[in-house]
Amino acid sequence: MTRISPLRRLTAATSTLALAAATLVGITVLATPASAHGAVTDPPTRIYGCWERWSSAHTNPAMATQDPACWAAWQANPNAMWNWNGIFKEGAAGRHEQSVPDGKLCSADNPIYAAADVPGPWKTIAKPYDFPLTLTDPSNHGADYLKIYVTKQGYDATTERLAWSDLELVKTTGRYAPSSPYVTDVSIPRDRTGHHVLFTIWQASHLDQPYYQCSDIQLGGGTTPTPTPTPTPTATPTPTVTPTATPTPTATPTPTPTGAGGCTASYAKHGEWGGGFSGEVKVTAGTAAITGWRVSLTWPDGQRVTNIWNAGATSSGSTTTASNLTYNGRLAASASTTFGFNGSWSGSNGSPALACTAL
């Protein structure tokens, strides 16, 4: 049974009531087009895959170790998981690279889906070099085209945010009539091996409403993560829809000086809305490899970190202390990793003072 997004139910109900009321008073109403909803379901997008694997057990703590990237995404914003079919940005006018900035391709520059942009151990699905891609469009709005890209060899999805320069275009399709699903054959260059990101732009036909989709695939017979064991279902609360926040420009990263500990940390704010914000810290090893790290963030304006991904954290007074997890503590010389978080603020939202210690 297909879950109907609460947003779509509300939109449909509102349109029906408005049309009925207008008819009673003899007014002709031209209904506003409903928003299209859909996603690449094979290979699954990051958000759709997390919803598909864990929607019936999204409070199961086993997810934190079995599927840590999805655990972080569910913790960051569970409403984004229920609304997996809404990763779009309107009004691009075909200028996709100018509309969606580097580092925010997997979220379509929408802070509701910001967790999809965070590097980490995203589950992959093994694919041959030639395979069919399936895009599911329950609203049947058609497609002007699909543009399908794959990351270049050397890109590391576990440590790097996706940028346009990381991608190679492998296919552009023609139009699709409004009849879901849309299926097209994809051929990947044979020099790609290991974990890669398949990036799809779906230009919906009913509006200037392109969807931006990141799917994690494994190529060339490399090691694929062990499939997630079937989780024990728990009661699922009724989801609510969080209003889309208005992103603010990314803050200039604030570096910390290199210390004797052998690592540095820099901070960037990726979005801000009424009472909340999202941020990211980049940890970089010094001239020697390290086996672990710890970063303290001292907040100037009473901010609080409410949830965090790709790190463990404790708070004391105005300081949040973040530590590596098992999969991102070891860094080669000059190598980097990132962790992200959501937080709350009031009044002012200045950048924290950072200190990085290698363990």
List the keywords.
five-stranded mixed beta sheet, 32% strand, alpha+beta, disordered N terminus, Immunoglobulin-like, single chain, 2 domains, 14% helix, 359 residues, Coagulation Factor XIII, Chain A, domain 1, five-stranded antiparallel beta sheet, globular
Provide structural commentary.
- The protein has 359 residues and is of the alpha+beta class.
- The protein folds into two domains: 36-219, Coagulation Factor XIII, Chain A, domain 1 (Distorted Sandwich); 254-358, Immunoglobulin-like, CATH 2.60.40.
- The chain is built from six helices and 17 strands.
- The strands form four sheets. It has a five-stranded mixed beta sheet, with no helix packed on it. The protein has a five-stranded antiparallel beta sheet with strand order 9-10-11-16-13. It has a four-stranded antiparallel beta sheet with strand order 14-15-12-17, with no helix packed on it.
- Helix 2 (46-54) crosses helix 4 (68-76).
- The longest helix has 19 residues, at 6-24.
- The termini are far apart.
- One of its GO terms (biological process) is carbohydrate metabolic process.
